[in-house]
Design a protein that fits this description.
With 247 residues, the chain is an alpha/beta fold. The protein has one domain (8-232): 3-Layer(aba) Sandwich (Rossmann fold), CATH 3.40.50.720. 43% of the residues lie in helices and 15% in strands. It has a 4-stranded parallel beta sheet, with helices on both faces. It has a two-stranded parallel sheet with strand order 1-2. A two-stranded parallel ribbon has the order 6-7. Helix 2 (31-41) links the parallel strand 1 (24-28) and strand 2 (48-52). Helix 4 packs parallel to helix 5 (145-164). It binds NADPH dihydro-nicotinamide-adenine-dinucleotide phosphate (NDP) and 2-hydroxyethylsulfonic acid. 2-hydroxyethylsulfonic acid binds next to loops.
């Protein structure tokens, strides 16, 4: 199961899972995109279910989950990917609605989906949860304030999950990418494409497929091996703030 599969990293992870022969549950709010992606993934001779819900609504999450046939309510892998940054302002100029959107999506949304999926994994004593964190979960940079806080929360939740799910044979991993060129920056800058493009100007960022490759490595280890955490950066990025741009 991949949340936020209508775009970027989630979409690339869904394609990777299909290539690996997984039947897949793809989720997001944009039904059209999910339906198109489902058709595309089915070319790999796998089955695909689409679930349309907003991760910010625990009720929507639960309703969508229980609409699945029982045999589908048993994912081997859950990729908690749905998330966003909204705005990039000094904290004193931050927008309350942006803050709520990030906390409700990146933190409470991840919890809502996990809370719904974990009980089945526990009863089957089988599962792998991969939380998509960020370099913003490791470092705090100027104007990143609440987005960084939300991803630091993802890091703490991941560690907590790993400890609490230990007796239940459930692997818990997190992946923390640096800059990945997706719709992320367009959304962060509220549709300002010019500002979004500047983020990647003069350097080669990661692409969504690079992150999916790393997730593929995580899910293809032997049963006794877990990749706790992976920090994946473009070669042109040394930290949240040090980048090498040409030109
Ligand atoms: P995209 O904007 O391309 O994709 C975001 C996905 O999240 C979409 O599929 C979107 O689906 C989904 N989503 C957002 N809000 C909600 C919501 N309320 N309910 C359900 N789904 C939602 O960005 P990325 O692929 O880059 O981002 C994926 C994850 O990777 C995020 O958690 C992000 O923080 C993280 N990340 C991104 C990096 C980057 O530089 N791009 C770097 C490090 C981490 P829909 O709109 O259809 O609901
Ligand atoms: C997204 C990457 O550098 O904007 O998580 O924090 S960054």
């Amino acid at each position: 199961m991949v949340t936020g599969a209508t775009s970027g990293i989630g979409k690339a992870c869904a394609a990777m899972l299909a290539r690996n022969g997984y039947n897949i549950i793809i989720t997001g709010r944009r039904a059209n995109r999910l339906n198109e992606l489902a058709q595309h993934l089915e070319n790999n001779q796998v089955e695909v279910k689409t679930l349309v819900f907003d991760v910010r609504s625990k009720e929507e999450v639960e309703k969508a989950w229980h609409s699945l046939p029982e045999e589908w309510q048993q994912p081997d892998v859950l990729i908690n990917n749905a998330g966003l940054a909204a705005g990039a302002d000094p904290i004193h100029d931050g927008d309350w609605d942006d803050w709520e959107q990030m906390i409700d999506t990146n933190v409470k949304g991840l919890l809502a989906v996990s809370k719904t999926v974990m009980p089945g994994m526990i009863s089957r004593k089988h599962g792998h949860i991969i939380n998509v964190s960020s370099i913003a979960g490791k470092e705090v940079y100027a104007n990143g304030n609440v987005y960084c806080a939300s991803k630091h929360a993802v890091e703490a939740i991941t560690k907590g999950m790993r400890i609490d799910l230990l007796p239940h044979n459930i692997k818990v991993s997190s992946i923390s990418p640096g800059m990945v060129e997706t719709e992320f920056s367009i959304i962060r800058y509220h549709g300002d494409k010019e500002k979004a493009d500047k983020v990647y100007e003069g350097l080669t960022p990661l692409y969504a497929e690079d992150v999916a490759d790393a997730v593929e490595f995580m899910i293809t280890r032997s049963a006794h091996v877990n990749v706790n955490d992976m920090l994946l950066m473009p070669a042109a990025q040394a930290s949240a703030v040090y980048n090498h741009r040409e030109g």
